[in-house]
């Protein structure tokens, strides 16, 4: 009872004296799909999966007109606490985040803000499928025919799920989950370009059936090449479904090399 009373008074102090109210502005993230697209260029799906698996959920904080991703620290290697990432990829300690919020003088940490402001019902999971009973065979044929003509490394995409997310952070773009067969030599070359210090994993994850060790599309493609793939996929889907989506998130597609 005393703790609840203290939190209530502290919450009122933050609002009245410091102008800070994060009610309904802290969201839990438990999978790669929920992460807003700002961070696609800074954290690939494998990194996000490893953080979620090894450290627990992430949190998205909306403050002013900006968004911040709050990441648990590796307790064994870094000690307890949190890292914070701005949407431009800048990563800093939670103490700097308290300065940004204007409450560093109070000596609070993100744990206290979670206790006061986080509502477990605040999720960003709302989605719907573009079809009531989706049959992906037709769109798979359309995509594979067009994409393989443009990109010689593209062999065959099998779609597991195709969603148009909704909600405050994610309106107007598609999310695709699936298995993409690509040319082995191209995949190995791309891997070496982005992960030169790590051996090419090939298809070991498919053999082990380990969700956290798959090679995802976002692990080996970026920059202008990713933009070219994104634009072509978006054009095809807009034409197929008669929509005008703003973007498409394809980085979580799992790759199979052959």
Can you characterise this structure?
With 258 residues, the protein is of the alpha+beta class. It has 2 domains: 2-117, no CATH class; 127-257, GMP Synthetase, Chain A, domain 3, CATH 3.30.300. 39% of the residues lie in helices and 22% in strands. It contains 10 helices and 10 strands. It has helices at 2-18, 45-55, 75-78, 94-101, 110-117, 137-150, 184-194, 204-208, 217-220, 223-241; strands spanning 26-29, 58-63, 66-72, 82-86, 91-93, 127-128, 154-165, 173-182, 247-249, 254-257. A hairpin with a 2-residue loop joins strand 2 (58-63) and strand 3. Helix 6 (137-150) runs antiparallel to helix 10 (223-241). The relative contact order is 0.13. Mean pLDDT is 82; it is low at 1-5.
Could you write a compact summary of the structure shown?
The protein is an alpha+beta fold and 258 residues long. The protein contains 10 helices and 10 strands. The strands form 2 sheets. It has a 5-stranded antiparallel sheet with strand order 1-2-3-4-5, with helices on both faces. Strands 6, 7, 8, 9 and 10 form a 5-stranded mixed sheet that branches.
